[in-house]
Amino acid sequence: MINNDEPLLKAVGLTKEFGFGRQKTLAVDHVDIELKEGEVITIVGESGSGKTTLSKLLLGLISQTEGEIYFQGKLRDISTYRKKVEYWKNIQAIFQDPYSAYNIFHKIDSVLLDCIRMRGNGSLPHKKKVEMMTEACSFVNLKFDELTNKYPFELSGGQMQRLMIARIFLLDPKILLADEITSMIDACSRATILDMLMQLRDEIGMTVIFITHDVGLAYYVSDKVYIMERGKFVESGTPDEVILNPKQPYTKRLISDVPKIYEEWDLSTVA
Q: Which of 95, 136, 204, 269 has the smallest C-beta neighbourhood within 10 Å, fewest atoms?
């Protein structure tokens, strides 16, 4: 991991309210968080805890009610579409349902070419683009020549998650936000996906934010863990501090639901 004292992304007093009057819901409640370059952060909480809303705030998909977000030491400015696009070059996401992440009318070639164009490489010769797409697919154990002219929905769930990582390989963001990405795939695919993400983190120094309800995942992949309940961080620290020595009743209850937390995971690549 790259040592850098300056946070890559920082949120101060981040708050999001939905609704009005008696119908008002406080989804994220004055949250502070810092992410450093190359760090792996996991935000753990049950459904409805606010973790997905927080991820959308960090991505710039929704606006905050209160609070400030800083990127690379400067107050984030996504006030125009062009500024949002520039920001999204640096922060990308993989979501729980891979089928919802693709345009059903776009073939895989088009999906990957869009990534190349987004990085400003649209003018490269076609042969070079094919080489880049082939390399990205090879990184996730897919063969580009077998995907040509196919649509994403023709792939399995595990293959689609791999294709999402191939997109990240091409986009080369500084931050990847992975929201419940292993919840809809089998154990073998989960180990493969996590291993690929960790390899990608090591190769490009990417910061990874996992959003999950899975305490086991948090323990084995994280540099730092945040426990979220009702829109607030109730506990944070290293995996050993938070998961092996929890202080809050909510954290203890989350851990009690996970058997064999002390068994080591096998994250070796599965073909």
A: 269
